[in-house]
Amino acid sequence: MDIISISSSLFISKTLSSNFHTIPTFFFVLVVLLLPFDKHILMEMRWRNICVQGAMLGLLLLCFSLLVSAQTLDPLEVSALKAIRRKLKDPYKNLWNWKKKDPCENEWTGVICTEDDDQDAYLHVQELRLLNLNLSGKLSPRIGNLPYLTILLLNGNQISGPLPEELGYLPKLVMFQVDQNHISGSIPKSFSKLKKVQHFHFNNNSLSGQIPSELSEIPEIIHILLDNNNLSGYLPPELGQIEKLRILYVTCASLLQLDNNNFGGSIIPDSYATMPKLVKL
Ligand SMILES: *[C@@H]1O[C@H](CO)[C@@H](O)[C@H](O)[C@H]1NC(C)=O
Ligand SMILES: *[C@@H]1O[C@H](CO)[C@@H](O)[C@H](O)[C@H]1NC(C)=O
């Protein structure tokens, strides 16, 4: 008997300490077990009142702990995803399940959430993988309201319109791929604030204007792919000084057209000469 009671109390204390849920469940089960016997065993009204109060408390705690632990996506990010969806056209209904209640719980296509950690009451969007889904329409500036995003893949769709400057407000973004779309407008200078980003894959779009020299402020960038766009102006010499840059693809023909005097006939600045990097002409 002793061993059983010791081990069971050990078990209870262990589960109590390891799982917050167990406390209210324990209360609840205790009361449910006791209530039917109250006439025979617990003769005093006082006891019954204590039981009823305990049951209420247990139920309340259970509800509270369920509320706290049923982790759902941060409501700000849910509304950002809905705004992103509204700006996109989806003729093949690849985003059919983006109507379901919670993007994490209901596993919306292409939405990958953070692991349930106890730091925060909510989950967050960690990755958005919407590649090759025949999506058209435009990119909502509300993409900038997904602050935990590390991977953004929108390649191989027919998305048009500009890259919102709000995309530069994603402090954790590492992979940024929008190649093979119909994106136009210029590359926002705000992208220089993406301190973690390693990959810019913007090739095969309709981007125009000057490549911002501010991109050289991105410490971690490895790949900048800008080929097959309508960029003009010159190739900023500063990009040649990015320590980690390994691949820079640009279509130099259009750059050359507008600005062929800037570098004495050569459009590739000297700063690129010493680097083991690839520039596609
Ligand atoms: C995309 O569109 C093509 C036809 O244009 C179709 O064959 C293909 O199945 C579509 N893919 C998806 C994922 O919707
Ligand atoms: C990108 O555009 C070039 C030129 O139009 C084309 O040859 C190439 O196939 C395209 N790449 C992809 C992956 O679509």
Secondary structure tally, helices: 5
Structural class by secondary-structure content: alpha/beta
Order of helices and strands: HHHHEEEEEEEEEEEEEHE
Please give the order of strands in the largest beta sheet.
Answer: 2-3-5-7-9-11-13-14
Overall radius of gyration:
29 Å
Number of DSSP E strands: 14
Give the percentage of residues in beta strands.
5-15%
Bound molecules: 2-acetamido-2-deoxy-beta-D-glucopyranose
The first-to-last residue Cα distance is 84 Å
Q: What is the residue-mean pLDDT, rounded to a whole number?
A: 80
Question: What assembly state would you assign to the polypeptide chains in this entry?
Answer: single chain
Task: Looking at this protein, list some descriptive labels.
281 residues, alpha/beta, 8-stranded mixed β-sheet, 4-stranded parallel β-sheet, 14 strands, 27% helix, disordered N terminus, binds 2-acetamido-2-deoxy-beta-D-glucopyranose
Short structural summary:
With 281 residues, this protein is α/β, with parallel strands linked by helices. The protein contains 5 helices and 14 strands. α2 (22-34) packs antiparallel against α3.
Describe this structure in words.
There is one protein chain. Helix 2 (22-34) runs antiparallel to helix 3. It is built from 5 helices and 14 strands. Helix 5 links the parallel strand 13 and strand 14 (278-280). The chain starts with a helix and ends with a strand. It has an 8-stranded mixed β-sheet with strand order 2-3-5-7-9-11-13-14, with no helix packed on it. A 4-stranded parallel β-sheet has the order 6-8-10-12, with no helix packed on it. The protein has a two-stranded antiparallel ribbon with strand order 1-4. Helices cover 27% and strands 15% of the residues. It has helices at residues 2-18, 22-34, 45-69, 75-87, 252-259, and strands at residues 88-89, 111-113, 125-129, 136-137, 151-153, 160-161, 175-177, 182-185, 199-201, 206-209, 223-225, 230-231, 247-249, 278-280. Residues 1-20 and 257-266 have low confidence and may be disordered. By secondary structure, it is an alpha/beta fold. It is elongated and about 95 Å long. One 2-acetamido-2-deoxy-beta-D-glucopyranose is lined by residues 92, 94, 133-134.
